[in-house]
UniProtKB/TrEMBL annotation:
Residues 621-655 are annotated as: Disordered. Belongs to the type II pantothenate kinase family. The keyword ATP-binding applies. It is an enzyme of class 2 (transferase). GO terms for biological process: coenzyme A biosynthetic process. Keywords: ATP-binding, Coenzyme A biosynthesis, Cytoplasm, Kinase, Nucleotide-binding, Transferase. It is found in: Cytoplasm. Its EC number is 2.7.1.33. Pathway: Cofactor biosynthesis; coenzyme A biosynthesis; CoA from (R)-pantothenate: step 1/5. This is pantothenate kinase. The keyword Electron transport does not apply. GO terms for molecular function: ATP binding; pantothenate kinase activity. GO terms for cellular component: cytoplasm.
């Protein structure tokens, strides 16, 4: 069918109109890009945010950007905000086109020539959270140097290129300023986090450090790849010191660069301080007298890994980091991404080795690290020669007070009791229960002897995953707040619900009517299971269910492996007093007072700290230090070092 001439002309007009509209639109867009470059950057970033999410941790990917539809999207992490502000700033400074990622300078680990500040970090990439620690040389030490020796702060950092060097510097200044070395540490983080005194010498001698040489010789952290072994020297003690060279050989510019790189990072990290609980666990920062510096602790969700990597990249930190000691499953999973995108090598440390190393370091380094819970009317006994007796006696006393029917009611009245009165020789063997995404159970027989003996799939990930489903909340802290208000008996079926309250039959099976028979069991009886049930009841019942299960598995393993002390660690326990108290009571109850559950203030960070320590070859137990680069095969060597045949003494005969 042919077109009429009026139809043809109308069609021509329509096409012409369409064309001119698109030309005007394109011109407008181009003008907008020129006039308002940030607008287009904003768009690019928004797209990035979504795509980052997509390519993050595989197990928790959501193809439609972020979370499943219908869930509220809470912005809990400052990555996006920070990343954007940093990108704007660095783009305008360097005048680069952020529309194309290839414009951003990349450096592979091999071709990096700048300073390396990777030695101050330890990374633990877990199933839910990524934890990282960084070490900053003690500010008090800088002040002293500045006052007494006229050293600029930056110059002082040069002495602190690695933790070993920090220790060496500390040793030399300790000798010079012996009188004020204790006083100036006081009050830094309060008594609770004060380091154990008088162990520095012991530790330093274990490192074969030579006081005289400390001021004139410098141990160069070879992880930076700036080692000139041709300048190896033999010290006056006759001990060959590997990786040393004269300060004169180190060029001034390299030192300044290194100091600047550190300063840049430190000031950046301080900017993160503003985010209170979201990123940095400020309350956990502590001054280590062993290493003369402060450890800082950060964490973020592992599914945000690519955001974190972008943050590093857009701040140019990757240019000054060649390698980082890393542990956790993600150290393997993300190693290629880190190397490809950031040029940073993740030097893998065994997960369990790192956990134990970090934990033992902190237990020796900090007074007040360990604690447990006791009924509020429990009173500590006066100290005896053998401190560990205190624990034995208090256990049996508290046990007398713990009757089955008081189990729940006592929970809220339980008090936090510090447990550092345990002498180190009495420490082993102990059970280490790491409640992360899943649960790992280790028997530790000595500073370098441990074995993963068991585990459980019902862990922190189980609780957190089910809570997200049941409550729609996307904040772990909010969930814990909810749980603290909940009533689990609305959800749990009690023994009395099954037997009736007064049944004589219960005596025979050794149960009382008011204990839980089945977690969530009450929901089977109602026509509508959610009627009358609040989110807080679900959050509490689930928390107790997961915790009870972990407690029971831990107790059975402790019994099987004859350990009477059980340390519970992992971020699941952070700020989670309900679980800590429940574990303390369950272990005491089930073991009839022969075992004790203990907790540690830095519960979630031992893996990251251990990765730092192992990577730097720092140990606490008096054995010679081994730098990771001295090993032919890091993992193999590490395992070798951690196998020390210590025969555990039996604590009690199996029943
Ligand atoms: N802010 C938080 N976000 C997510 N999970 C948290 C948070 N705080 C505590 N948790 C709990 O800690 C668990 C992760 O513990 P963690 O020791 O870091 O394990 P992993 O190394 O497997 O990530 C989570 O599964 C959750 O139960
Ligand atoms: C696989 C893991 C060691 C990983 O550690 P995580 O990230 O959970 O801290 C841990 O989740 C685990 O031990 N799961 C339990 C596996 C089992 O014993 O059945």
């Amino acid at each position: 069918m042919g077109m009429h001439s009026w139809q043809k002309s109308e069609f021509t007009f329509f096409v012409a109109g369409l064309l001119s509209a698109s030309v005007v639109w394109s011109l407008g867009l181009a003008a907008r890009r020129i006039l308002f470059p940030r607008k287009s950057l904003q768009h690019k970033l928004d797209v990035d945010d979504a795509s980052d999410e997509e390519c993050s941790s595989g197990d928790r990917d959501y193809p439609d950007n972020n979370f499943p539809k219908g869930e509220k999207e809470l912005v809990r992490w400052p990555w996006d905000k920070l990343r954007k502000s940093v990108m704007y700033a660095s783009a305008s400074l360097r005048n680069i086109n952020l529309g194309d990622d290839s414009d951003i300078s990349m450096a592979t680990a091999k071709n990096k020539t700048g300073p390396c500040i990777g030695e101050i970090f330890g990374l633990d990439v877990g199933g839910t959270l990524t934890k990282f620690v960084y070490f900053e040389q003690g500010i008090e030490e800088h002040k002293r140097h500045a006052a007494h020796e006229g050293l600029h702060r930056r110059e002082h950092y040069n002495i602190a290129a690695s933790a070993l060097e920090v220790l060496q510097a500390r040793r030399s200044s300790f000798a010079v300023h012996k009188t004020d070395s204790n006083a100036d540490l006081q009050g830094l983080w309060g008594l609770r986090q004060e380091s154990v005194p008088d162990r520095l010498d012991e530790f330093a001698s274990s490192c074969n450090l030579n006081l005289k040489s400390a001021s004139s010789e410098r141990v160069v952290g070879e992880i930076c790849g700036k080692v000139d072994l041709s300048h190896q020297k033999v010290q006056s003690s006759g001990m060959p010191m590997k990786r040393t060279r004269s300060m004169i050989i180190l060029t001034k510019s390299m030192e300044v660069e290194h100091a600047e790189a550190l300063d840049n990072f430190y000031s950046f990290a301080r900017r993160l301080d503003g985010y209170e609980t979201a990123l940095k666990d400020k309350h956990l920062s502590y001054y280590s007298r062993f290493l003369n510096g402060t450890f800082h602790f950060f964490r973020f969700e592992t599914r945000r890994m690519h955001h974190a990597m972008n943050l590093i990249r857009f701040n140019d930190f990757h240019l000054n980091i060649k390698e980082i000691g890393a542990t956790g499953g993600g150290a393997h999973k993300y190693a290629n991404d880190w190397e490809r995108e950031l040029g940073i090598v993740l030097t893998k440390q065994d997960e369990m080795d790192s956990l134990v190393a970090g934990m033992q370091f902190v237990m020796t380094d900090i007074l007040g690290e360990c604690f447990t819970f006791k009924p509020s009317d429990w009173t500590p006994q006066p100290s005896q020669d053998q401190d560990h007796h205190v624990m034995d006696r208090s256990l049996s006393e508290s046990h007398q007070k713990l009757r089955k029917d008081e189990f729940d009611s006592q929970e809220s009245a339980a008090t936090n009791v510090k447990r550092d009165n345990v002498i180190p020789s009495d420490l082993y063997p102990y059970l280490l229960v790491s409640i992360g995404t899943g649960v790992s159970i280790l028997r530790v027989d000595g500073p370098r002897k441990h074995e993963r003996i068991s585990g459980s799939t019902i862990g922190g990930g189980t609780y957190w995953g089910l809570c997200r489903l049941l409550t729609g909340s996307d904040s772990f802290k909010d969930i814990l707040d909810l749980a603290s208000k909940g009533d689990s008996s609305k959800v749990d079926m009690m023994v009395g619900d099954i037997y009736g309250k007064e049944s004589k039959a219960l005596e025979k099976i050794g149960l009382s009517s008011d204990i839980v028979a089945s977690s969530f069991g009450k929901l089977v009886a109602n026509q509508n299971p959610s009627r009358g049930i609040k989110e807080e009841d679900l959050a509490r019942a689930l928390l107790l269910m997961v915790t009870n299960n972990i407690g029971q598995v831990a107790h059975l393993n402790a019994k099987l492996h004859q350990t009477r002390r059980i340390y519970f660690i992992g971020t699941f326990l952070q700020h989670n007093v309900i679980s800590q108290q429940r574990l303390a009571y369950s272990i005491d109850y089930w073991s009839q007072g022969t075992m004790e559950a203990q907790f540690l203030e830095h519960e979630g960070y031992f893996g990251a700290l251990g990765a730092f320590l192992l990577n730097q070859g720092i140990e606490h137990d008096g054995s010679p230090q081994v730098n990771s680069n001295d090993r032919e095969d890091g993992a193999k060597q590490s395992r070798k070092r951690w196998t020390n045949p210590v025969v555990p003494k039996p604590l009690f005969s199996p029943e």
